[in-house]
Specification:
The protein has about 500 residues and is of the alpha/beta class.
């Protein structure tokens, strides 16, 4: 990532050398030959960080550092000094410098120093922006996020909400499927009616039919009174069937009929009851694979999957992690003015979040409980975040030996996608934007094998014809085939 660096030195040749070095490293450099000129530039130009010499006439680098911190809080300042002693370092840090670097300056030392300072400045700006946004009152049912993936989700919600179309919400556990369902309800013409949600995985199979359709008095033991089901309770509003992939197959047939006829028959009753509710469904299962395995009815799948909303995992949403974290801080610590330190924000961004938004909420709740200052520090985060060194592939700017080839990056990404999808190669090919033949060829060429917890139908399907391997040769001797008859010799002329 290239940063906009303001170089300050009253020695013109030194300024030019630093400017050229920064440009070689991919940054943009602006020069100032005095501290006063640097202050004017900061007020007029967009700058990410300051790189200043310590010894200058009129105002030295340490005083400039103090002035920068007053004018632009959070702006990183790197002090360049000819003295590499501990006293010089302490003096620079006391003046508010982010870091210091000793002369002569080498590109190998300058590159990581500028990268760290630029990243710290970026996170400071992002933290301030998100903290200001989190203080604003958000309307009920708003789906947070400004990443491209979430903007697509928000646009789809806005388009489908005013309709009566059935919506299937797909996403990993903890991504906020119920929140999306509530957002659709809030923006629909039914928003004055009730929003009723049922987690199909949390209800025993013997009771789910009664929960959905209700029951008549005496329908079963302890049914002393008649009871309305959730379909009728949601009249005029919206019913969310969460984790619908967990619904027993025998109940699916009755659910399909209820969706088609807009009527339900309570258990133990001979009368059908009409209902007027919009039905939304959600799942973290691959329902297409479930249909192929005969664990989910195909006709029901097409009935509920008129419009599909795919929720991205939190690890794929970029800086949305910080936006959600600040929103949670504003809600969890309404009586305190808490924000994230740049170091804590960096850990949140680097973590892979297998539990998605639910795990982030747990993390922020813990941090609020343990915070001793007005900022959440790294020490306030869970131990697995503090010690995490896995997850995202990071290209180090400090050691060229850690740089990866394009092939290696592709290998790692393919492997990660397959692991995230539990080895489902058909789904992985869709995510990677490849056809299935191409993915098989890449896996075979690299000798990659991803173990799965359960073989699904996509795994059991035969590979494409050009990928099929011949059957192994038997060790038993094979009967000799009669040799083809030799052609008869030509008759003499």
């Amino acid at each position: 990532m290239g940063y906009k660096v303001l170089v300050v030195d009253d020695d013109d040749p030194a300024c030019e050398l630093l400017e050229m070095a920064l440009r070689r490293l991919g940054h943009t450099a602006t020069t100032a030959t005095s501290a006063e000129e640097a202050i004017r530039t900061l007020q007029e130009a967009d700058v990410d960080l300051v790189l200043t010499d310590i010894k200058m006439a009129a105002m030295d680098g340490l005083e400039l550092c103090r002035r920068v911190n007053e004018l632009s809080p959070g702006m990183p300042v790197i002090v360049v000094t000819g003295d590499s002693s501990m006293e010089a370092a302490v003096g620079a840090l006391r003046a508010g410098a982010y870091d210091f670097i000793a002369k002569p300056i080498d590109d190998k030392l300058l590159a990581p120093c500028v990268a760290r300072a630029g990243q710290a400045g970026f996170l400071q700006k992002e933290v301030r922006r998100l903290r200001a946004e989190a203080g604003n009152v958000r309307p009920a049912g708003e789906v947070l996020g400004s990443s491209p993936a979430m903007k697509k989700v928000q646009e789809l919600i806005a388009r489908v909400a005013p309709t009566e179309a059935s919506v299937l919400i797909f996403g990993e556990t903890g991504t906020g499927k119920e929140l999306v369902a509530r957002a659709i309800h809030e923006r629909s013409l039914r928003n004055k009616g009730p929003f009723v949600a049922l987690n199909c995985a949390a209800v025993p199979a013997t009771l789910i039919e009664s929960e959905l359709f209700g029951h008549a008095r005496g329908a079963f033991t302890d049914a002393k009174n008649a009871r309305e089901g959730l379909f009728v309770q949601a009249n005029g509003g919206t019913l969310l069937l969460d984790e619908i992939g967990e619904m027993p197959i025998d109940v699916q047939a009755k659910l399909l009929r209820a969706l088609q006829e807009k009527r339900v028959r309570p258990l133990g009753s001979n009368m059908e009851v009409p209902y007027n509710a919009r039905i939304l469904t959600a799942t973290n299962r691959d329902l297409e694979a479930e249909v192929r395995e005969k664990r989910f009815r195909e006709d029901l799948y097409y009935r509920i999957n008129v419009v599909r909303v795919d929720l991205p995992a939190l690890r794929d949403r970029g800086s949305d992690v910080l936006g959600i974290a600040h929103h949670l801080l504003a809600r969890l610590a309404a009586d305190r003015s808490l924000s994230l330190s740049p170091q804590a924000a960096e850990r949140l961004m680097a973590y892979d979040w297998p539990g998605n938004v639910r795990e982030l909420e747990n993390c922020m709740e813990r941090a609020v409980a343990l915070a001793r200052f007005d900022q959440i520090t790294v020490e306030d985060l869970p131990e697995k975040l503090r010690n995490d060194r896995s997850g995202k592939v990071v290209v180090s700017a400090e050691d060229s030996s850690e740089l990866l080839t394009i092939d290696e990056l592709e290998n790692r990404y393919i492997e990660r996608v397959l692991k995230m999808l539990n080895g489902n190669k058909s789904r992985a090919a869709q995510v990677l934007g490849l056809d299935r033949r191409t993915l098989y060829r890449k896996l075979e060429r690299r000798g990659m094998h991803i173990p799965t917890h359960a073989q699904n139908s996509a795994e059991r399907a035969q590979p494409p014809a050009d990928q099929q391997t011949p059957p192994p040769q038997s060790s038993q001797p094979q009967p000799q085939q009669p040799a083809a008859a030799a052609p008869a010799p030509a008759a003499p002329a």
